[in-house]
Amino acid sequence: MDVDLTRRAFIRHNLANPLKVARDGQEALDLIDTWRVGDIVPSVILLDLKLPKISGLDVLRVIREHPVFGTVPVVVLTSSAEDGDINEAYSLGANSYIVKPVDFDKFIEVARQIELYWTVLNMHSFPKHA
User: Fold this and answer.
1) Which residue stretches of the chain are H helix?
2) What region, left, alpha or beta, does residue 109 occupy, with left being phi > 0 and alpha being psi -120 to 50 degrees?
3) What pTM does this model have?
C-alpha cells in the first residue's frame, strides 16, 4: 500500500523520476546485487525499516558497504518512531529519517518534499561509472 501511495504522490506532483520497487528486504538486496556498471544509479533510496524477509536496517548495512550504492542518499521512510530504530538508522548511515504520516494528503506532501529535496535542491555528486 505504501508503494502505491508513493507512486500516486509522485504522479500527483508530476515528479518524473522513475521508481524501482523492492517489496521486501531480499528483493532490495537482489536489486543491489544485480546492479552493473552502466546501469542507472538511483538519485535517492527510500527505505522502510519494517520489510518482510530481511529488515530495512540490514538492507541499509549492505547499501552502505556497496562500492556504488554506498554514496547514494538513503531516506528512511517508516512507521517506526522508536528511538532505537532512529538511532540505529543514523548510525548505519541514513541521511534522513521520516515517520510516515497516516493522512494521505500529508503523505503526498512528504513524498513531494523528498523528491524535491533529494533531486533538485540537494547538491550531491555521484561517481561516474562507464
Assistant:
1) 2-12, 25-33, 56-65, 83-91, 104-116
2) alpha
3) 0.78
- d(CA 76, CA 48) in angstroms, rounded, equals 6
Length of the chain: 130
Domain 2-120, architecture per CATH? 3-Layer(aba) Sandwich (3.40)
pLDDT tens across 26-41, in order?
999 999 999 888 888 8
Please report where in the chains the cell 502505491 appears, as a residue. Answer: 4
Question: What are the tens digits of pLDDT across the range 54-81?
Answer: 999 999 999 999 998 999 989 898 889 9
Cell 549492505 belongs to 62
Rounded CA-CA distance 4/111 in Å is 12
